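QUALITY CONTROL LOG
STEP: pairwise intake check
CHECKER ROLE: data steward
CRITERIA: each record must contain a sequence immediately followed by its structure tokens, with no blank fields

ENTRY 1 OF 2
RESULT FIELD BELOW
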Amino acid sequence: MGLPGCIAVIVLLLISWREGEAAMFTFVNRCADTVWPGVLSNAGTARLGTTGFELPPGASRAVPAPSAWSGRLWARTGCAQDGATGRLVCATGDCGSGTAECAGAGAAPPATLAEFTLDGTGGLDFYDVSLVDGYNLPVLVEPSSGERPGGASSAGSCASAGCAADLNAMCPAELRSGGGAACRSACDAFGRPEYCCSGAYANPGTCRPTSYSQVFKMACPRSYSYAFDDPTSTFTCAGGPDYTVTFCPGATPSS
């Protein structure tokens, strides 16, 4: 095989490799304490290379995602091994696996969730930060403004999403959880249809913001505050950017 043929094969291999990788998620911990990120892939989508790990203060870790991946990311806090069983137990966001890897299990509420659908409708990425299942710590999602090979430029079409506010400090007393370590949603706390957008309230016309969801929305306007909060809370990005997910970012997303 001549040099032109070798170059063509290398180019095809590179294209195939990039097509199999949709994005790179970089987890950053700016909290004062260690957190344990958890990853839950949606049904029918390939898993990431990890479903959970330990992330010390100031540390970061990059995790590649396969093409068309969808799922949710979060951080567990206050984790320690149980002296009797040896299982990892977390104060908030526990997935119940007993280890750093969540192995297909989701976060127990209350927990702040970062949700993604990569390469969705129209080739767009869809992402949001949700407080629908409550809140345990600030989370910021930032798309890169660059371009990965084979994708159109994403500059100007993406926005940061998230909640940088300390909702635990302003959480209504009746929603406080874990001695103030987290803040429950009204649905989780009371189970009433008007808070859960269920039954007669299972549509945007009847399920409206409540005094509780408005506490979340006023503090975190770029986060989901209740189930039908789509117009101001779901963000899209073209061009296949990478994403940085920062825990305890210390600054609000840009307007």
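ENTRY 2 OF 2
RESULT FIELD BELOW
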Amino acid sequence: MDKQNSQMNASHPETNLPVGYPPQYPPTAFQDQILIHQQIELLEVLTGFETNNKYEIKNSFGQRVYFAAEDTDCCTRNCCGPSRPFTLRIIDNMGQEVITLERPLRCSSCCCPCCLQEIEIQAPPGVPIGYVIQTWHPCLPKFTIQNEKREDVLKISGPCVVCSCCGDVDFEIKSLDEQCVVGKISKHWTGILREAFTDADNFGIQFPLDLDVKMKAVMIGACFLIDFMFFESTGSQEQKSGVW
């Protein structure tokens, strides 16, 4: 019996997943929380020269399940800043690209509601499974989560003042009528030194355990879009592409 229990509690070293974990499902399938930690880039800290962002995506136990890396050229990163279009590739622990995020170049001001921010989520790469679309609002950051058919599924609403000074910033995930909160995307406070001298951010995503696995992947895309829009800076300039 002890041997059987030890086998049930064992995990694959390559994926950090329990033995018997169905291979057709991604690690997010049986999770209700995901942690996203941006890596500190030493060159960017010392020179202010914008480099490709890199992130570790972890489960609720702190085990890395994915690695995400931005793929943009130097000119785009340093000229367009946080408003830049990008491709972000999410790779599993076996080195395979499993999710691709595509953000086109869009307007960064609420004064132009015809061309607001959006991001496309593909899984596997090349196959769209959902979209995150910024919804026009004069003051609040709002987004609509859509499925692969461009049908609205959920809403995201953030605070009027997006400031992470000495505390977390929560973006609530809501039902379509915005009457029920089903989860949240939180930008975690990482301390005065890290917040002041780097733009490496930590996020947490909470969603229902039974949420469709595709929508969980779309929530990851929403988190990256929020990061670039509200918490990304370029060099020493606090340039952001948020609501204003």
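INTAKE CHECK: passed for both entries
DESCRIPTIVE NOTE, ENTRY 2: The two ends are 61 Å apart (CA to CA).
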